[in-house]
Amino acid sequence: MLKGKSAIVTGSTSGIGLGIAQAFARQGADVMLNGFGDADQIETLRFTLERDHGVKVRYSGADMSDAAAIHAMATTAQAEFGKVDIIVNNAGIQHVAPVEEFPPAKWDAILAINLAAAFHLIQAVVPDMKARGWGRIVNVASAHGLTASPFKAAYVAAKHGVIGLSKTVAIELAEHGITSNTICPGYVKTPLVEKQIADQARAHGIPPEHVVRDVLLSHQARKEFVQVDELAALAVFLCSDAGASMTATAIAMDGGWTQH
Ligand code: NAD
């Protein structure tokens, strides 16, 4: 479905971004991977995707809190693939703490990686997308872009901001064949979620074994984690030609959470 397209997927060495990058490669797109992790494992992933799907796969270790590094990653992708048709702003981090104890450095890092990085990458690729009259911008926010939960001041603020950014650029770029949409997942069992179970237990004053049932999935009517493959299939659809009229949306894939 994406044959001949090329994509940058930020935060694609793990979790949701990895699933989206794999789905894009399966659909025939060249992919720039990004994120942190073990160098040998990332090279194995890169090589395997290329070998299995006959597409170009490159890797950038650009830190999404560094605007210059984001621009350099976009320049490299344009040079390697000849163009960038699709970006997925997915990299993200989390910190859970009551607002009065929330470390300002964590606030800054979350706003930089979860929100400002999307602005910088959009700015880097839009001129070329505009010139070619085709582009797809997919932003991975969260159900927390639509609703709040306690102890996540920075994350909820950043994710609401991502939806605002996405809607704004969607409207600006609509007449240039470029769409911008936001995917808002409910809880997905990735390292990002596994890492917050202990902090959630502390912040809510409950045992860690009760966090999944009583906190994470408490509003998710389906009472199941959202699957990475489900989110990847949605990203593929948004980036296909069938997604041309779908722009400026914030699509919840959250097991009913935000309509609960
Ligand atoms: P994850 O921890 O599995 O993956 C995060 C990715 O981002 C990794 O590849 C990591 O290396 C990368 N990353 C982190 N900091 C970076 C930085 N400074 N520069 C470059 N890369 C960086 O997390 P995930 O659960 O797959 O989350 C992906 C996105 O989905 C995030 O934006 C997250 O907020 C969002 N999300 C996750 C859930 C969930 O339940 N897991 C729910 C809703 C939204």
Number of helices: 9
CATH class: Alpha Beta
Radius of gyration equals 18 Å
Mean pLDDT: 97
Main beta-sheet strand count, sense and barrel state: 7 strands, parallel
Q: Which sequence of SSEs, written as H and E, runs from N to C?
A: EHEHEHEHEHEHHHHE
Bound molecules: nicotinamide-adenine-dinucleotide
The assigned structural class equals: alpha/beta
How would you describe this protein?
This protein is an alpha/beta fold. It has one domain (6-187, 227-255): Rossmann fold (3-Layer(aba) Sandwich), CATH 3.40.50.720. Helices cover 47% and strands 13% of the residues. Strands 3-2-1-4-5-6-7 form a seven-stranded parallel sheet, sandwiched between helices. Strand 4 (86-89), helix 4 (104-132) and strand 5 (135-140) form a beta-alpha-beta unit. Helix 3 (67-81) runs parallel beside helix 4 (104-132). The longest helix has 29 residues, at 104-132. It is globular. The model has no long low-confidence stretch (mean pLDDT 97). The protein binds nicotinamide-adenine-dinucleotide. The site of nicotinamide-adenine-dinucleotide (NAD) has 29 residues, from helix 1, helix 4 and helix 6.
What is the topological layout?
Elements: E1 6-9, H1 15-26, E2 30-34, H2 39-53, E3 57-60, H3 67-81, E4 86-89, H4 104-132, E5 135-140, H5 153-173, E6 178-185, H6 191-194, H7 197-204, H8 211-216, H9 228-239, E7 250-253
Parallel strand pairs: 1-2, 1-4, 2-3, 4-5, 5-6, 6-7
The structure holds nicotinamide-adenine-dinucleotide.
